[in-house]
Specification:
There is one protein chain. This protein has about 450 residues and is α/β, with parallel strands linked by helices. The protein has 3 domains: about 130 residues, NAD(P)-binding Rossmann-like Domain (Rossmann fold); about 170 residues, 2-Layer Sandwich (Dihydrodipicolinate Reductase, domain 2), CATH 3.30.360.10; about 80 residues, ACT domain (Alpha-Beta Plaits). It is about 35% helix and about 25% strand. The protein is elongated.
Length: about 450
């Protein structure tokens, strides 16, 4: 029996995900190496503080604070960039790829903002860039789109791509907790990023939506060119009213392509989604993605979207693909030939103007509880060609009231103009809040 090849791996960063990669390779080493036909050896671990105590024990000789021991080391077969951020991680990834190295990453922000450049560097220098762990944690959504559903054109991809926001919304719905109270619990459990805006303002999930849009349609979209809204404005009253109307409120990424008009819509925002939809039932820290292809129809993937084990599982999956490739298997990453196909896929494809988005809406208006208020609001909505499907009024203890409206088909421009008009009325106590109603069949 021939001796197994030794594959040497270097880790840049040894936080939650890096420690999970080490722990789970060691835990499942026998089965993993049997499947791969190779021996895995993590020889270098680069950290900022080599003396810091960590949950996972690593031999002291593996630690270093010098990235060159991984990036510039000819003995390292696979570089795992698990640092996060777009500063030093970008420079080190560039350096590794320019040397023709294989880089595995879980860094969704880096791919979203610099993916086009980094893939080009990899192609030009014979390197390879793997990124399964960058989207939806342990769900193999990238491999599913790239490999399992390769025969399809994708009309619609939508889903929940951030476990923290989903946890907060689930707790608010189930227990009637306020946003602030639930956020406090999420912080204590370690679910919230150090930069809370990434989770709460939708930035983390929007990064992932941009990556999926490229994977499915070959077009890189800038974050500033899409709708990106978080969950801070969602109240318990909104969640309760949505429930009464047969909906749940979820933070949804939506990637929709109109093949006739050759337009692509990419957006990330809270939305009311019917309880009958499978994705509406994805709660807690779980993620779920629905993919509709023209051949297979609709496929739904659900799994843990964050956390050490889920993300490290995807990193190890990419390491496995890299090992197979090193041993002569076909490249499972986007090659130069694939890039030409991607360019054809995106040929003439335009990004839809977010202001042209049409659909139904939910609007909450906080008003003085006095006669004539409802008629006044109805008139303002009508002036902007907005007709109401449902109207509900809730009296508050302080003598004010909430008017909660769902509309018939309207558009972003009309809703924004109506909210501005309402906000200057003396009877309206604060800026109105609106959320889109997501209907996959429309």
């Amino acid at each position: 029996m021939s001796e197994k090849r030794i594959i040497r791996i270097g880790l840049l960063g040894f936080g939650v995900v890096g420690q999970g990669v080490w722990k789970n390779i060691e835990k499942n080493r026998q089965a993993l190496e049997f499947r791969l036909g190779a021996q895995l050896d993590i020889t270098q671990v680069v950290v900022k503080n080599t003396t810091k105590q960590r949950e996972v024990a690593v031999p002291a000789e593996c630690y270093s604070d010098d990235p060159s021991r991984v990036v510039d080391n000819p003995d390292i077969d696979i570089v795992c960039e698990l640092m996060g951020g777009t500063g030093e991680a970008l420079e080190l990834t560039r350096r590794a790829l320019k040397q023709g190295k294989i880089v595995v990453t879980a860094n969704k922000a880096l791919i979203c903002e610099h993916g086009e450049e980094l893939f080009a560097i990899a192609h030009q220098n014979g390197g390879h860039y793997f990124y399964e762990a960058s989207v939806a944690g342990g769900i193999p959504i990238i491999k599913t789109i790239r490999e399992a559903l390769v025969a399809n054109r994708f009309k619609l991809i939508f889903g929940i791509l951030n476990g923290t926001s989903n946890y907060i919304l689930t707790r608010m719905e189930r227990e009637g907790l306020s946003f602030d109270a639930t956020l406090g619990d999420a912080r204590q459990l370690g679910y919230v990023e150090a930069d809370e805006a990434l989770d709460l303002d939708g930035i983390d999930a929007a990064h992932k939506a941009v990556i999926l849009a490229y994977l499915a349609h070959g077009k890189w979209v800038k974050l500033e060119d899409i709708i990106c809204e978080g969950i801070r404005q969602i109240s318990g009253d909104d969640i309760a009213m949505a429930g009464q109307l047969g909906y749940k409120i979820k933070l949804l990424a939506v990637i929709a392509r109109d093949f006739e008009a050759n337009q692509l819509s990419v957006r990330l925002h809270p939305a009311l989604i019917a309880k009958s939809e499978v994705i509406a039932g994805v709660d807690e820290v779980y993620n779920g993605v629905s993919v509709t292809g023209d051949v297979v129809g609709t496929t739904v993937l659900i799994g843990r979207g964050a956390g050490q084990d889920a993300t490290s599982s995807s990193v190890i999956s990419d390491i496995a693909d890299a090992v197979f490739m090193i041993q002569g298997a076909p490249k499972p990453v986007i090659s130069e030939e694939d890039e030409q196909v991607y360019r054809q896929l995106a040929d003439g494809l335009e990004l839809a103007d977010p202001s042209a988005l049409e659909g139904r809406y939910y609007v909450r208006i906080h008003v003085k509880d006095e006669s004539g208020v409802l008629a006044k609001i109805s008139n303002i909505l009508a002036e902007h060609s907005i007709s109401c499907a449902t109207v509900n009024q809730q009296e508050l203890e302080d003598g004010s009231a909430l008017i909660m409206v769902t509309t018939h088909a309207s558009n972003e421009t009309a809703i924004a103009a109506a909210k501005d008009a309402l906000s200057v009325e003396a009877i309206v106590l604060e800026q109105p809040v609106s959320f889109r109603i997501f209907e996959p069949g429309c």
